[in-house]
Design goal:
By secondary structure, the chain is mainly α. It has one domain. The protein has one helix spanning about 5-100, and strands at about 100-105, 120. It has a two-stranded antiparallel ribbon. The longest helix is centred in the middle third of the chain and has 94 residues, at about 5-100. The protein starts with a helix and ends with a strand. The model has no long low-confidence stretch (mean pLDDT about 85).
C-alpha cells in the first residue's frame, strides 16, 4: 500500500522532532554530568580543606597548651626569684647589722637590671 505525501511529511517531521528532542536531552545530560563532576570535585576540595583546618586547629590547641604551661612555669620561676631577692636582702641586712652597720633602703625595682644596697655606721 502506497504511503501518501502528507503521511510521509508527517512521518519525517515527527522523526526530526524526536531527534531534536533526543539531542536536547543529550546536551542537558552532558551539562548535568559536567555540573555533577564539578560539584564532586568541589566537595572533595572542601573535605580536604576541612581536614587541613581541623589539623591546624589541633596543632594550635597543642601550641596554646604548651605556651600556657611555659607561662605558668615562667610565672612560678619569677615568683621564686622575687622570693630569693627578698631572702637575700634580709640575709644581707642581717649580715650588715651583725657587722655593726645600718642598712639603708635599696634602689631595687622590678624592672631594674642592677640596684644598690648601702649601709652606714
Amino acid at each position: 500500500m502506497p504511503v501518501s505525501v502528507d503521511a510521509t511529511a508527517t512521518l519525517l517531521g515527527s522523526s526530526w522532532w524526536e531527534e531534536d528532542a533526543m539531542q536536547a536531552q543529550a546536551r542537558r545530560t552532558a551539562e548535568a554530568k559536567a555540573g555533577h563532576a564539578a560539584l564532586t570535585e568541589r566537595v572533595t576540595a572542601l573535605a580536604a580543606d576541612i581536614r587541613r583546618l581541623e589539623d591546624a586547629g589541633r596543632e594550635l590547641e597543642t601550641r596554646v597548651t604548651t605556651r600556657r604551661d611555659e607561662l605558668q612555669r615562667t610565672q612560678e620561676r619569677r615568683e621564686q626569684l622575687r622570693e630569693a631577692i627578698v631572702t637575700a636582702e634580709a640575709t644581707l641586712d642581717a649580715d650588715l647589722r651583725a657587722s655593726g652597720l645600718v642598712p639603708e633602703p635599696s634602689t631595687y625595682t622590678d624592672d631594674a637590671e642592677r640596684y644598690l644596697v648601702t649601709a652606714r655606721r
